[in-house]
Amino acid sequence: MSAEQKVAIVTGASQGIGAGILGAFRDRGYRVVATSRSIKPSADSGVLTVQGDIGAADTAERVFKAALDQFGRVDTLVNNAGMFMAKPFTLYSPDDYALYMSTNVTSFFHMTQRALDVMSKQGSGHVVTITTSLVDQPMSSVPAALASLTKGALSAATKALAIECARTGIRVNAVSPGIIKTPMHPKEAHQALAALHPMGRMGEVSDIVDAVFYLDGAEFVTGEILHVDGGQAAGHHQM
User: Fold this and answer.
1) Which residues contact 29 (CB under 8 A, 6 or more apart)?
2) What CATH number is given to the structural domain containing 40?
3) Who wins on pLDDT, 167 or 192?
4) Domain limits at 49?
């Protein structure tokens, strides 16, 4: 790490994967700007929290202003905020669709656009986005076409931006998780969810954290969609 302390922005940072990524950045000496709707102020002087709707343009403006005013730079953006709602496609309401688009896609647009603007002036930076393995390997037992519609867009944009930014010093990657043990999934569902992975277990938050930090340090890797899904994306698994 350079003599100047690095700075990361993490969205959806109040719990689950986002909270795990936030803690891991601090353990590695980064200063962090963390955002979510419900995030509380931090007693850690190296963590600045910003509350807001991640789909709103003004949230991105406030997050990046805070990062630059307080810490003076942005080295990594982790687009972690997202939503997931499994139901048959014809049962999604217009409100479901709007919420999916705002949380998963519009947030990526506003946050990543500002990140690339800041990073292009620095001549370096990394954007990493959390998608889902369902984009590549849908399952009849988990009807989630809006997850594929929105997260698939992020996977495609990741590759497009990696090429667009390839000569600027900015890298753009994604992590594509299977089903991870987070507060989103009740414990009584864990056994059934574990069985959906060829490896026979759910992922841990630490598995996703490890993938994010591999990509963050892999300076010759860009445009990568790194599957951390117990083999889901590789193919079908017969019980």
Assistant:
1) 1, 5, 6
2) 3.40.50.720
3) 167
4) 7-176+204-226
Q: Which two tokens stand for residue 52?
A: 């807001």
Amino acid at 37: R
Q: Among residues 164, 69, 171, which one has the least CA distance to residue 119?
A: 171
Report the C-alpha gap between 55 and 146 in whole angstroms. 16
Residue 121 lies in a domain: yes
Q: How far is Cα of residue 115 from the mean position of the Cα atoms in its chain? A: 14
The per-residue pLDDT for 2 is 43
Percentage of residues in the chain having pLDDT higher than 70? 97
The string of DSSP codes covering 62-81 is: HHHHHHHHHHS---EEEE--
Residue 142 β-bridge partners: 139
The whole-model pTM stands at 0.95
Q: How many CB atoms neighbour CB 144 within 10 A?
A: 20
Q: Are 35 and 10 in contact (CB under 8 A)?
A: yes
